[in-house]
Design goal:
four-stranded antiparallel sheet, elongated, 2 domains, 5% strand, Multidrug efflux transporter AcrB transmembrane fold, two-stranded antiparallel ribbon, mainly alpha
Length: 635
């Protein structure tokens, strides 16, 4: 099934696992099995007979279906969790419904454009709604947090006046975070894999939609309504969450003061953590496995385990040997090299059997000598090989010859069955095959080309690491350039990427030390971390520069910044972290990994923004008089 399990020739390599093919009614039963309703797409039953479907096509289809089914369950749970978090933060229905409306419309519009543009739903695209939850709600949280601050401090003002002041203060940061976040995801357009390019493009579109809704819908609604903060906060004068001296703000200011009093200690800790993380990051490796995306008791896993245990394997590597002249593979000496190659490959870990024209010729040689085991070998002369090939071509099943040899005997196919789909193991097998061919086929005039599901997985993993490394690097450079332009300072542009750089380094180091491989989920989480995590830095820097311009003192500016945007950054990180932490309860392992990594990235990004930026600005030399906030002039 799938990639061809059971396709070995009877009596050849593979031991006749495909013997049922020649039985009367075999193909009819197989057709009925394919039409039968299968459990999880892996096991089909026809009466008392059971058929196991395996191979890369089955894995990919089942994985895509599982991803969609899981999201149908998890997205409502994620929405409820975010709504509860928003209610605990703002204690008003407005504070819940407005951000949720922005989030829902941004997702619906983005997915609608995908449908109208007839863009296919790749497996990675199934994660797009989840990612848009993270990137679409942050601006709304910042806007509402500042809105309620204004309402609490100026309850006598109307909604339009309050919202006007909020937009005047938050307009530049919001558009800057939209641009920097978009640049972070636009870097995926340079990925070599189309699904990643599609994902990056439509994530940017969702970011644009969410910004447009945040600065238009929310101000319009709140401008028409009478300002209110809710009974809970009104009774307590909002001291718990919003006043300048509430507990969260007090804690942030207190921690900041202590760390600013010991900057060398904080710098030493950050450098030490970075050094340890850098060493751990060197231990990172790429290893992706589709089967690891399923539970161990999943029918698709059981089907592959059965085929790997009882037959040759369910993943296939195809090696095409190509000569430069006609009839080159009638040469016994060259066929013996292929035979030796097969024997070498079958001795490697995770490799089952192999099949080539050699197996057919050996089987015919043995059959034409009364099944004498002594003749289970290749003939000695070119003429004998040619005769056997002719006899096979006029036999009852000549189409099998077309599966291993072309018409003019210039190309020969070797199919190798492999019993794992882990790309690290596949890489070792393919690299070994290349080295063997380079050594033993040198000077023969024969070239080797690799194909098949095993090679596709190997190439895909290689493209993944190269594309994501390029995308992460380009996104950081793009964010740095945009920030430097908007802030009119290269130094401040560098400061903007410090938190996300430290975050990705620390998480990569942890993954390296913990032996967690780089795969689609972890690579995608890193992209989200840069795209979303940079928001915290931008909001902090905007507010700090504004406070510094007025205070003229670093410590006072840092304290004022913590009182104004510190808690908002924490609120934003909390909402996104809670949303992705819900995925830890998913039944689909890739979503669990994505949720855990993004949640960790958000926590660390928040901490790095609140710790590293005050430290960086402490050591900056300021021009006198105090610098103006350049982005106001630019934007």
């Amino acid at each position: 099934g799938g990639s061809g399990a059971g396709a070995w020739p009877q009596g050849g390599a593979g031991g006749g696992a495909g013997g049922w093919q020649g039985q009367a009614g075999g193909w009819e039963l197989w057709g009925r099995a394919e039409a039968a309703e299968a459990s999880d797409g892996a096991v089909a039953r026809v009466g008392d007979d059971r058929f196991y479907l395996a191979g890369r096509p089955v894995i990919e289809v089942t994985s895509g279906l599982h991803a969609l089914e899981d999201l149908r369950v998890m997205i409502p749970v994620l929405i409820v969790a975010i709504a509860l978090t928003l209610f605990l933060i703002f204690r008003t229905w407005r504070g819940v419904l407005l951000p949720m409306t922005v989030m829902a419309l941004a997702i619906v519009w983005t997915m609608g454009v995908m449908a109208l543009a007839d863009v296919p739903m790749y497996t990675i695209s199934t994660m797009l709604p989840v990612i848009l939850v993270a990137v679409s709600i942050g601006d709304a949280v910042h806007l509402l947090s500042h809105y309620y601050d204004e309402v609490l401090h100026h309850p006598e003002d109307g909604g339009r006046a309050i919202m006007g002041r909020v937009l005047e203060r938050l307009g530049p940061p919001l558009i800057t975070t939209t641009i920097t976040t978009g640049v972070g995801f636009l870097a995926l357009l340079f990925a070599e894999m189309p699904p990643f390019r599609v994902f990056g493009l439509f994530t940017v579109l969702g970011i644009a939609f969410s910004w447009l809704l945040t600065v238009s819908l929310i101000p319009a609604v709140l401008g028409l309504l009478r300002p209110k903060v809710g009974r809970y906060l009104a009774k307590r004068r909002a001291l718990r969450l919003y006043a300048e001296q509430n507990r969260l703000t007090q804690a942030l200011v207190r921690v900041t003061d202590r760390l600013q009093a010991r900057p060398a200690w904080l710098l030493g800790v950050l450098l030490a953590l970075s050094a340890v993380a850098a060493v751990g990051a060197t231990r990172l490796y790429v290893d992706s496995s589709w089967l690891s995306d399923f539970r161990k008791d999943s029918p698709v896993v059981r089907a592959h385990d059965l085929i790997n245990e009882r037959f040759s394997g369910s993943i296939f590597l195809n090696v095409v040997f190509e000569g430069h002249r006609k009839d080159v593979f009638k040469d016994p000496a060259l066929l013996r090299r292929i035979e030796a190659f097969q024997q070498h490959m079958e001795g490697l870990p995770h490799v089952g059997d192999s099949r080539s024209i050699v197996d057919y010729i050996k089987s015919m040689n043995k059959a034409l000598h009364a099944d004498d085991p002594a003749y289970d070998r290749l003939p000695d002369t070119r003429q004998e090989v040619a005769e056997y090939l002719y006899l096979f071509s006029v036999s009852g099943r000549p189409e099998q010859l077309d599966e291993v040899m072309d018409f003019d005997y210039r190309r020969a196919l070797v199919t190798i069955a492999i019993q794992t789909d882990h790309t690290q193991a596949l890489k070792a097998i393919i690299d070994d095959a290349r080295r063997y061919i380079d050594r033993h086929f040198a000077g023969t005039g024969v070239e080797a080309h690799f194909a098949g599901s095993a090679n596709n997985s190997y190439v895909w993993a290689d493209l993944l690491i190269r594309s994501q490394t390029l995308a992460i690097g380009l996104s950081k450079l793009g964010i740095l350039a945009i920030a430097a332009l908007l802030f009119r300072s290269l130094v401040v542009g560098i400061y903007t990427v410090i938190p996300v750089t430290l975050t990705t380094l620390l998480i990569a180091g942890f993954a390296g030390w913990a032996g967690i491989p780089l795969d689609v989920s972890t690579a995608l989480a890193a992209g989200v971390a840069i795209g979303v995590g940079v928001d915290y830095a931008v909001h902090y820097i905007f507010r700090y520069l504004d406070e510094r311009r007025h205070a003229g003192d670093h410590l006072q500016a840092t304290q004022a910044t913590m009182r104004s945007v510190g808690k908002t950054i924490v609120f934003n990180a909390t909402v996104v972290t809670v949303g992705f932490a819900v995925l830890l309860f998913s039944r689909f392992p890739p979503h669990v990994k994505l949720g855990s990594f993004v949640a960790a990235y958000m926590v660390v990004s928040c901490l790095m923004a609140l710790l590293s930026l005050p430290l960086a600005f402490r050591y900056r030399r300021w021009r006198e008089p105090a610098e103006e906030v350049a982005p106001r002039a630019v934007l």
